[in-house]
């Protein structure tokens, strides 16, 4: 398991864990052995992240490197330039299911002005297939690693037998991170009725300490730190939440396999379909 929200030196990352399903299931019947751990990664070197993000998009305001809560880097400041037309994507190797990844990743294109171009070389996003977890760097951090030939995204459990629902769920989620989106359950307006002691016990079975749960489940972003509007329980960026972990049935969240209506609105607002005169 990757260490969660650990800041280290150099090109290493701070991680924030999310859950992705290894197979289909309802929110009421989510089992720990049915889950994989997947992670969103953030470049730990704040000054380097600032330089990369502002070079790409001058409207990305630099993050204050003296911020004591460094892990709460303003993820709204990792947006790609709104007039960018193309994000280049490459794979580190040829796999028999790459057409599935391309198919589901390109669903984002229907709702934004950018296009994902695969196999062009000089990538902005570089995806690998190392066994284990699935993860992605957030927004403009992706380019730093991809330009160095270091994967900025990983799909750790895909194979020939993976169901389309899993390809859809995980691919859309990881590319959402690459487009600068973060985890929906930590939205400041997400008033989830957590049963905290049960949540601690549930995630302990996945190897999480209480501190991990506090940071990755209960902590919330400030509204100014995130991209998007109101809390959306149907977002592709949301954790599944089983019924036994919450007091209110309205807070139960199943497997979100597809983009929600709000996901489509948010990505269109971030990257509008602007006529730039630049080729696609």
UniProtKB/TrEMBL annotation:
Pfam entry (one): Astacin
SUPFAM superfamilies, alphabetized: Metalloproteases ('zincins'), catalytic domain
GO molecular function: metalloendopeptidase activity
InterPro entries: MetalloPept_cat_dom_sf, Peptidase_M12A
GO biological process: proteolysis
Superkingdom as given in the UniProt entry: Bacteria
Annotated Peptidase M12A domain residues: 103-240
Name of the protein in its database record: Peptidase M12A domain-containing protein
């Amino acid at each position: 398991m990757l260490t969660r929200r650990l800041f280290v030196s150099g090109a290493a990352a701070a991680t924030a864990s999310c859950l992705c399903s290894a197979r289909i299931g309802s929110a009421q019947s989510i089992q720990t052995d049915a889950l994989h751990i997947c992670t969103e990664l953030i470049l730990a070197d704040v000054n380097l992240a600032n330089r990369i993000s502002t070079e790409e998009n001058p409207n990305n305001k630099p993050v204050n490197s003296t911020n004591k809560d460094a892990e709460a880097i303003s993820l709204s400041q990792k947006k790609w330039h709104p007039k960018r037309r193309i994000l280049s994507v490459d794979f580190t190797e040829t796999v028999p299911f790459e057409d599935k990844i391309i198919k589901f990743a390109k669903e984002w294109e229907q709702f934004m002005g950018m296009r994902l171009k695969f196999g062009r070389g000089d990538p902005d996003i570089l995806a690998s297939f190392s066994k284990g977890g699935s993860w992605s760097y957030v927004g403009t951090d992706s380019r730093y690693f991809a330009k160095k030939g270091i994967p900025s995204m990983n799909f750790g459990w895909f194979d020939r037998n993976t169901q389309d629902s899993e390809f859809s769920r995980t691919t859309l989620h990881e590319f959402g991170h690459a487009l600068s989106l973060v985890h929906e359950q930590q939205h400041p307006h997400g008033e989830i009725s957590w049963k905290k002691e049960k949540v601690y016990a549930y995630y302990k079975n996945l190897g999480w300490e209480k501190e991990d749960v506090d940071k990755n489940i209960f902590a919330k972003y400030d509204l100014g730190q995130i991209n998007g509007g109101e809390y959306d329980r149907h977002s592709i960026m949301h954790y599944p939440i089983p019924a036994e972990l919450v007091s209110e049935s309205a807070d139960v969240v199943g497997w979100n396999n597809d983009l929600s209506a709000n996901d489509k609105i948010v990505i269109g607002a971030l990257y509008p379909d602007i006529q730039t005169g630049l080729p696609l």
